[in-house]
Amino acid sequence: MKTRDIRTSYADADCDVCGRTLLRGERAELFLDGGARRSVCELCKSHALHEGWVREGTAPVHDESDMGSERNRSLLHRLRGRRGAGAESAFADEPDRRSRPASGEDPGGGAGQDHRSSRLREPRHVHAVPSSAEHKTVSAVQMFNGSEHRRTVAGVARSLGLPAVSVLPSGAQQSLVNVVVSWELCWYRYEVDLSDERSSVRLAGQGYELSELTPPELSPNAVSDENGALALRAELAR
């Protein structure tokens, strides 16, 4: 009797609303946004419907009048259209403003050139990086809580429960702090750059095996609530 080798394949799929990679066994539903197909996870279906996206395979009802068509357009598209119209109006007025010298300004442009040169010579303000590890982790948590990545953590937590969280200064670069959020089935690693004037948070890695993480990353020193907001345990103990 011959035995057959059965192999399963899993293709990563991302939600077009929250941006997270779906877990194994989690199915995405297809929506139509105009002529584009969008993959939406179970947690973001209500958001997709609110934006005016239509489930694939269903026939949306449209009003034939212009007013009905405007109501059926997504809020996002209407806002983009209004912002674009405002920008065109601003650019249309720009030549008139440039052609008229301001009061007290030399029509020859000498005063304006001096003013522009002085602005170009202004020093660039650089964000100071905290020196101690404690201050770095505190700043990194604040930056993460102000970023959009809280939404990803909250979405996964609704399915898998609250995660373990480690916040560790990077040994490779002084201004970087690594934030690792992990569950039994998956993990996410974020990099917080404290050197930028506008500190940035970006997704640096993700996986499905805790063995891919280092021992310090598996030793939590922070917690997360159901909204994805992080807090250091040392701060909570004070």
**Mean pLDDT across residues:** 75
Q: In whole angstroms, how far apart are the ends? A: 67 Å
Number of helices: 7
Basic shape: globular
- The secondary-structure class comes to alpha+beta
Task: Give helix and strand order, one letter per element, not per position.
Answer: EEHEHHHHHEEEEEEH
Kindly state the number of beta strands. Answer: 9
Outline:
This protein has 238 residues and is α+β, with helices and mostly antiparallel strands.
Describe this protein's structure.
This protein has 238 residues and is of the alpha+beta class. The chain has a domain at 133-237. The protein contains 7 helices and 9 strands. It has helices spanning 45-50, 66-72, 75-99, 110-120, 133-145, 149-160, 233-237; strands at 29-33, 36-40, 54-55, 164-169, 176-182, 187-193, 200-207, 222-224, 230-232. The strands form 3 sheets. Strands 4-5-6-7 form a 4-stranded antiparallel beta sheet, with helices on one face. The protein is globular and about 55 Å long. The model is unreliable at 61-72 and 86-99 (pLDDT under 50).
Write the layout of secondary structure elements.
Blueprint: E1 29-33, E2 36-40, H1 45-50, E3 54-55, H2 66-72, H3 75-99, H4 110-120, H5 133-145, H6 149-160, E4 164-169, E5 176-182, E6 187-193, E7 200-207, E8 222-224, E9 230-232, H7 233-237
